[in-house]
Amino acid sequence: MGVTVQTVIDLMVKQPIPNTVDGLLAGKPDDKVEAIAVAFMASQQVIEEAAALGASLLITHEGLHYAHRDPVEELKQDAVFLDKNERVRQSGIAIYRNHDSVHRAQPDLITAGLVEHLGWSGSVEEVRDYASIVTLSAAQPLVEIVQEVKQKLGIHYVRVIGDPNSLCQRIGLSAGYRGGASIMLPLNDPEPIDLFIIGEGMEWEVPAYVTDAVQQGRDKALIVLGHAESEVPGMKLLADQLRTALDGVPVYFISEKPLFQLM
Predict the structure, then answer these.
(1) Which of 177, 214, 218 is nearest to 198 (CA)?
(2) Measuring CA to CA, which of 25, 30, 63, 83 is 20 to 30 A from 222?
(3) Sequential pLDDT tens for the chain (263 residues)
(4) Binding site: residue ranges?
């Protein structure tokens, strides 16, 4: 029997998750899988590239319709919404959203992928539910870490708070929308964090905290990567795992164009 969509789902989902957003957004569980595409988000670009690659299953972290859960009712007659649905229908691709399962893995696969892509897997001091603490072998100036992060993640810019020359060794790191105070600030206990690296979060929480710390003369810093930029490495790690588990089934990772341009 060949590989089906359900075969792939069973590899990724180890146990049921209550109230999950994960699931099939298009296609059927018994659809045959000849090739798989993995991406951060099911954008129009990604769907078109997956179709061009001959993928029969697209696995994404975020959904199709511009909302964490079901699209708002007002969108359901929107031209962009309808055109996208028609493109999905024409492609015949099954689309599976894997958001909660990768975050519920032990350790969280999305954060683990970010740490791995930064080359810090061997420097992990502690893994918590929603964040990790990394201790570098030697302190580095913030400006050097910023350049290293951009180069390793292949991103053109980040947002930074802190003295570019401040030395950072103990780093608190989270991915996606987990950069809030309730997750990041407890990482200071029992030892203070020199540098927070987050995907995104409320600007009046961790960014305000780090700004106040700097104003007080403390060596604190923050790097804000962006939501997608922080979670893409985790989805690349998922693609690697599927490639290993499904020998003989091509697994492609589709990188998206940056959402924003600087003007």
Answers:
(1) 177
(2) 63
(3) 689 999 999 999 988 899 999 999 999 999 999 999 999 999 999 999 999 999 999 999 999 988 888 777 778 889 999 999 999 999 999 999 999 999 999 889 999 999 999 999 999 999 998 999 999 999 999 999 999 999 999 999 999 999 999 999 999 999 999 999 999 999 999 999 999 999 999 999 999 999 999 999 999 999 999 999 999 999 999 999 999 999 899 999 999 988 898 88
(4) 61, 227, 231
Write the single-letter amino acid at 134: V
Give the strands of the sheet with 132-141, arranged side by side.
124-127, 132-141, 167-173, 195-198, 221-224, 159-161
Query: Tokens 């954008």, residue?
Result: 43
**Token pair listed for 243:** 């490639």
What is residue 20's three-state secondary structure?
coil
Name the token pair of 50. Answer: 């997956």
The full set of domains in the chain, from first to last, is 5-103 (3.40.1390.30), 109-228 (3.40.1390.30)
Distance CA 230, CA 257 (A): 15
pTM of the model: 0.94
Binding residues for a divalent metal cation: 61, 227, 231
